[in-house]
């Protein structure tokens, strides 16, 4: 909404522009009128001299008439019995009789009758066309003035007005949805805060966006995505009051300002959450927008916070609503979260950890620990490289605390590259020793694997370190495969051509599908420890493990079980055909120095010394 001063200035500017437009036309009309009047006067005198013939017996009288009357004629008016000569000021100069002999002259309000001494005045021409000509000239001037005004209005004023309106649209409204943009939203929020301070009623700031909207754009095309955004806008507007504001900040992010929720905080929170629930239900309905009536689905994540007056600034309000939106995303998406101080503390802690994580990467605070992998005879066949964060002067940070944060922030990409370089350097260092035949398994995140240059990164690391590619094993999770399976298979084949092998980690915990499992160039499946933990007691876990082992061998894929901590677990796995194991029963993760010292021989003799 524009401010009142801006509106006044706009109206004054338009009035000035209109005045400037009309001025030439008014000047033209005035000039036409003056010119026509002068033309009548001039033509009257010229034609009177030319058309009237005076036969004067007395030259003195004729001289008087010609000098004092004829040169001052401005208007000639014909009456029934005479012709009246009038000057420019409307004074009667002379009345010339046309039906009798004689001439009358107006002089000092007295009529001097010269009688027949003057002789006969004969009017040979009608001077009326002189007046008509002047009237036509004035009429033409008016028409030209009107034409000028019309042309200026059509080709100057209206285009300028349309341009001004278009500029207002661009400046204050988002082009696709025609909703207020960020600039107008800030103005509306400022007004809402002022009104809230005056009325002491609460309002709510609601931020929402669409879950996985990029996938919809990528798979269905941007035309479909744009249509969905427009439909989302309509549904949001349909679920608020006229005095509330729905705005679009670009893309799939929307902000709603709800005002006048009452003076009670608890009740206002309930009203705000009810409105958010209406949004949630409306946006969960299918979108039928394609020409073939195909329906599309998307879900919203919503964050909201309350405000009253200027208790907190505009920027803080947006930060609070954003934090609530982040919590909704973190909670699994398609949900609603309300801002709270506790939420603020969690986010601030996360922000501090992100800063420390970046610092740790720069200061080389990460280390690789290695956990042995053994075969059914207890021989070490390799190790899994496990990342550890050891901040200087502080306790070690558990992987489940910082790995998800690294993935969310994208730091997992440089960290993952460092892990691969360090593991390959260790493979190179083992060559020619007791661990010459061991493999090292390196975990690769979905974000890292889907980097466009990931294949080149693997090749560069192998060349720079000189490691044997056959001794490097990349462990992928099912999240890597979800999406474009063909692209994943192609990239895996390119890496396998280098000599590197693949293992599918945490198998059975996601959405495993035989349709893609049989196509992936896998060398190994890793049974997740959640199934291994309870196999001696839980018949369901036991059945799942048997099925995984049988399926893997039918596909020609090796099986390794992780999280093996007891002999009972190991025995069950061996009895059902599992030949490779990893877990505390065979050794805990340890630094490379401790790991190498404990395994100077390929056989596992004493695992208790590992920490």
What labels would you give this structure?
611 residues, alpha/beta, Alpha-Beta Plaits, TIM Barrel, 3 domains, eight-stranded mixed β-barrel, five-stranded antiparallel β-sheet, elongated
* Low confidence ranges: 43-65, 97-134, 600-611
What structural class do the secondary elements suggest?
alpha/beta
- CATH fold-level name of the largest domain: TIM Barrel
The fourth-level CATH homologous superfamily of the largest domain is EAL domain
Please give the CATH class of the largest domain: Alpha Beta
Proportion of helical residues: 40-55%
Nearest-integer average pLDDT: 77
Integer count of domains: 3
The strands making up the biggest β-sheet line up spatially as: 15-16-17-18-19-20-21-22
- CATH architecture of the largest domain, by name, is Alpha-Beta Barrel
The number of helical runs is 20
Tell me the overall shape. elongated
Largest sheet: 8 strands, mixed, barrel
Number of E-state strands: 23
Indicate the radius of gyration in whole angstroms: 48 Å
N- to C-terminal separation?
A: 66 Å
Sheet-strand content, in percent, reads 15-25%
Task: Explain what this protein looks like in three dimensions.
This protein has 3 domains: 4-132, no CATH class; 182-339, Alpha-Beta Plaits; 367-598, Alpha-Beta Barrel (TIM Barrel). Helices cover 50% and strands 19% of the residues. The chain contains 20 helices and 23 strands. The strands form 5 sheets. An 8-stranded mixed barrel has the order 15-16-17-18-19-20-21-22. Strands 2-3-4-5-6 form a 5-stranded antiparallel beta sheet. A 5-stranded mixed beta sheet has the order 9-10-8-13-14, sandwiched between helices. Helix 1 (4-51) packs antiparallel against helix 3 (128-172). Mean pLDDT is 77; it is low at 43-65, 97-134 and 600-611.
